[in-house]
């Protein structure tokens, strides 16, 4: 259903695209900087829940018996080596991939029993696994703005001043305020990642999923991104967040929980300070690791070998 206020008479939206009420809710909110997620009393609500979820493809087990719940206000990091199933897990949580076995509840609705197009608008997903990417010639402001209609490329959709303000505000929040008129294709990798996050937030999602947001960034760009994500994590009105990473160094301060995956199975899950520790992390990556925490940031390195026992002196 199209809200009347977003329709330009005689100019229908692109075929098959409706503007979701989430976008209207965003548009009606105070212009940006904060991310209203509705009733504060709903903060304990379950956002996404996986019960005994398995995913098999071509005989391979991508996920096996995963049990995991994300509630409003939580900020999760999903860690694991290459091929552990992190992206698969994120796509399941986004309602874009159906499990082979088990049950997934997203915003209280069981996957498979509801129209997923409705629920997907309530999830902001940034992943290179998505095939659609912004056209290189698209203006940065429009890359964010067009998320309100779930399209790439400005067409006949109508946008209100408040939509523009929200898009510009999100770009400012992620340090891209000076880039609004640039062509997307001219941005650096770090700038693109931050613009992609701003776009994912345009529809005021209740769940933000970031797949390796810091991958490929140089040290400065990584730290700039982590600073933004730290602020985001500290905002009590921001949506629940799940980010995937290979590196504990990429965990922003403010992440509350961690899930460690290996070979599609959960090695450990729980509060980040209890989970990102030497034991579970070593099991997850299959090597002995030492973990240190400094100012809320994590570092992992290969544990030094224990000293060899001395040979007994000859009698
Ligand atoms: N259709 C398929 N058939 C067989 N195996 C598959 C198929 N699709 C994916 N896989 C395998 O599933 C595993 C999990 O993939 P996934 O992309 O979820 O891992 P990941 O943890 O995100 O990896 P990375 O960190 O390298 O991005 C990988 O080993 C991948 O090769």
From TrEMBL:
Pfam family, one: ABC_tran
GO cellular component, one term: membrane
Domain ABC transporter: 48-288
GO molecular function annotation: ATP binding; ATP hydrolysis activity; transmembrane transporter activity
The keyword S-adenosyl-L-methionine is assigned to this record: no
Membrane listed as a keyword: no
Region (Disordered): 1-20
Sorted UniProt keywords: ATP-binding, Nucleotide-binding, Transport
SUPFAM superfamilies named among the record's database cross-references: P-loop containing nucleoside triphosphate hydrolases
Listed name of the protein: ABC transporter related protein
Species: Pseudofrankia inefficax (strain DSM 45817 / CECT 9037 / DDB 130130 / EuI1c)
